[in-house]
Design a protein that fits this description.
transferase; 264 residues; single chain; membrane; alpha+beta; kinase
Length: 264
Amino acid sequence: MERQETAILITTIILVMIIVIMISLFLIFQKRKNTLLLQQKEDQQRFEKSIAETQIEIREETLRNISWELHDNIGQLLTLAKIQVSVAQNDPNKLQEVTDTITKSLVELRSLSKLINPDAIKSLNLTEAITMEIERFNRLQFIKATITSNEEVEVLDDKVEIIIFRILQEFFTNTIKHSKASNLDVNVVYDEEKLVIHAKDNGVGFNMNGSNTKQGIGLCNIQNRGKLINANVILESEEGKGTAMTLTYYYNKKSLTSLENEVD
């Protein structure tokens, strides 16, 4: 009888211990889950904030582009047309030159309207948006720029495209403002697994290990934006040999745009 009571007591203690352990594990699991969910929420909030800031930067860059085009391109064409009109008053044979200049001005205005119209921008895919930038550089004679690409095989998330486009904009801005380059080449390649974009200028380059430089700040911005979408961004530069950037984005690699609950 005593043995039976002892066995029941031991069994009861074991069951209680098992229940306590299970409750403890459940509480630890819930705490870990809540911590993970909170971290994911904070990451998503940071990502959304960064997206908003990036959209503002792109909008500001677009406004700067419009200002440049109005002043440096369309403004000069209209000034030339005004001069030609004055000349044509005494020489009617010059009227064709006036017509040609005004026609060119209209073409430039139509190109500029694409930058102004947000619906037109939204309808572009990433390659088309990059191509528009390249065409603008050539039109304004900022630099001789080229772009090569294959057909898009993967539709990217809009937010991913915004980040990638802004990364390229920063690289282009550094090239035009600081590199003293005469050529800029961009290659966009989509394959079944990833997108690879390679951009290279033939500018003066800079010391990658240098500090307190505008290039260093730009490099930091580019790297930070790449991390937001888990894109691999490699920058290479050497004094006198130009600067190159290679951006690799894997379609199936989890990014902050597709945060999911890892624990049910």
